[in-house]
Amino acid sequence: MKIVNMSEKSFNKFTLGEGNNLKPVSVFFGRNGAGKSAVSAYLQKNYAEGMYVFDTDFVERNVRSRTTIDGTNLVIGAENIDRTDAIKQAKTIMSSITKELNDDDDRINNKKKSINTLMMAIINDGKAKFGTTRIHQKAKANENPENAFNLWKSEMSHSVDNFPEYTSASELNADLVLTRNKLNVLKEVLQDFLTYRKEDFISAMKSIVLKPGTSVEAVVAGWLEQGLQLHNIDGHDDRLEDIAQCLFCGNDFVVSDIKKSVYERISSEYVSLTKTIERLKTQIINEREQIVKLGDLIPQELQQEAESNIRDILEALNTKLKNTETAIKIDEKYFLGIEKLNMAISDRKRKLKEKEHRLILEQSKIEDIAKQVIGQSITMDTDINNGIIELKKLEKCKYNDERSSELTNAYLLNLNNASSHLEGFKELMNQMLESLGMSFCLQFSADNSDSFDVVLTEPEEQSVGVKDLSEGELRLIAFVKFYLSLFSNYKKAKGQKAPSWEFSSDVKEIVLDDPITSIDSNNRYFMTTLINKLLSQVLHVCNRQKIEVAIFTHSIYDFHNFAFRIGKQQLDHYQITKNSFSESVIEPVPENQMSNYSDDYRTTFYEIIEFCTINRRELPETHQYLRYGNQCRFILETHARSNYNITNVTNNSLNKIMECYSIQGENEGIIVRMLDVINALSHGISYTWDFVSGISAAEIQNAARVMVWMLYKKDKMHVRAMVPGEKWREFEQKIKNWRIG
């Protein structure tokens, strides 16, 4: 089958790419109104020969509008043996197995609830300890607690540490305070002195400074007297104020100034040295106290070595203070202990700084740590582990019972094969109805041996009219009839595990147009199984009888379940959507997206994103654009209801919306306007009345942008998941360029 230049309904000369050829099985998804029926009509019109179609019209023609049900000729086999007793015994066994299966379900459900309750207690306790409300139980934990258990177990490797040190936020904060207190204590001893003044200190200790009033000063004074005599200057001579000439160098000098300068030089150097020594002693004594504060943060032997150095330095200073004219040699051994202590202090500070940084990082990721702690607690909980072991045993028992049921059903099927061509149809139809637990079956009509009446099976056989059946029951009977009508031979011989079958030679194309609707959703599992069985049978004969199947559905659940075991070489998935000009298009769904069950939500979200990125001057003012307002409400309401239990995204819920989406008060106005716009478009305005709506495309686009910005601000990765990877960087920049908020 091909789709070329299709102009049915909302399609405008549309051609499907990739050579236009559909694979043997094609599954199409589209919301109501997207254009599924148009594609189905196109295929039926262009491939009428050998076309078999199951749709609402088929149900109407073959079941709903009739008083009896026509049969389908099937070859069932030649033998017609009395199997009454064997069938009765098999049904008794089947009834017992069914009861046991019901008991299995009850036991399994109770055990699942028990395990989930235990996990929820640990989760709630962890949320309380870490002061967070944003941690939730894993999805579908009630249905599959073992999967939830494994997901929590995986959280242990996702956080900052492989094994968390803390069981609560208060513990983490207390350790951060303690770490910072230790950093405040760790201060290097005499670091400035060792860095900037050590060499000056060593030099000063070596220098000789005369102390005023000492014998050394008397010697210098005598020398000066000799100098005066040498220059023939008397101490009481009036010439002391005169300028004399040095007999050695020939320079002129004032005698009194030179004498005074020498005496002052001696006194000044002495005072300067002694003051420096006293200041240094005070500094050393003060910083000596810092060593005591180190406590057990630094090894005691290093502290003792530094203390010894300080004592030696103080002793040298005291000696110099008493004998300034004595040279004292200071070498590196005086500082070695202090420098080793400072190296240890620096190393410890570095490690504490690293720890402080890590704690701050952990503090900012408190939810990750909380998940890690919760995951560890759940994984190590004895009751939960034992519960999962018991659950596996119960599920194994159920599997064995289901296997027994399958074998018994297979045995019943073999017994129910009949010789008459319509007898076979009746038995196959009744077997399928019985497997669903239907309270009615088919019997040959008294007026027409080629048709059937609907008969109640309990409490006694009683005819009922076709019109007394529910819509779902009618559709189910119609689909089974359609399924069996595709075959010319459908039989199961003695000893065979599977039936043999042959398609009628005129079957070329099969179209299933929304085979499962809301009215027969209770029969979804059975009908899905039968459809998938049909697809397998089609592919089984593809080498000798080419048959192509196209399935259309509005259910995202069915979109994923149809043909889920068929290889991609024989199967394609497509989605039917409308672009911003309200034209229908068909796009392939990449295989990697088939694992995502939110295609309806995802498709709608991406349509909004494309609308948001249209240049304002290119907005479709003359085309349908009101629908984007309704789509915005669908996205926001789905997100808010799923994550924050906000039922209606209206101004009545404004405070909760502002809180849950972390919107600042100054942005309340733009949120109110956005809610007004998307809600105004959800109350009966036709999408074809854009030009009289009073709301421009630009205003709707602005509302859409505000909504996307709000979701991006709250959960950037959620929005990113809605955008194809290659387009994300460009779209993120556009969000920032909108300058909302």
Q: How many beta-strand elements?
A: 14
Structural class: alpha/beta
Quaternary state reads single chain
What is the arithmetic mean of pLDDT?
77
Number of helices: 23
The shape, in one word, is: elongated
Strand content: 5-15%
Low-pLDDT residue spans? 73-84, 417-421, 683-692
Largest sheet: 6 strands, mixed
Radius of gyration: 47 Å
Q: Order of strands in the sheet with the most strands? A: 2-11-12-1-13-14
Distance between the termini: 52 Å
Helical content class: 55-70%
Task: Offer a quick outline of the entry.
The chain contains 23 helices and 14 strands. It is an alpha/beta fold and 741 residues long.
Structural account:
With 741 residues, the protein is α/β, with parallel strands linked by helices. It is 55% helix and 9% strand. The chain is built from 23 helices and 14 strands. It has helices at 36-46, 56-64, 84-130, 145-154, 169-185, 191-206, 215-230, 255-293, 300-322, 333-364, 366-380, 382-416, 421-435, 471-485, 524-540, 556-561, 599-612, 627-644, 654-660, 668-680, 697-714, 716-721, 728-738, and strands at residues 25-29, 51-54, 69-70, 243-245, 252-254, 440-444, 451-456, 462-464, 487-491, 500-503, 509-513, 548-553, 571-578, 584-588. It has a 6-stranded mixed sheet with strand order 2-11-12-1-13-14. Strands 3, 6, 7 and 8 form a 4-stranded antiparallel sheet that branches. It has a two-stranded antiparallel sheet with strand order 4-5. Strand 6 and strand 7 (451-456) form a beta hairpin. Helix 3 (84-130) crosses helix 11 and helix 9 (300-322) packs across helix 10. It is elongated. 26% of the residues are buried. Residues 73-84, 417-421 and 683-692 have low confidence and may be disordered.
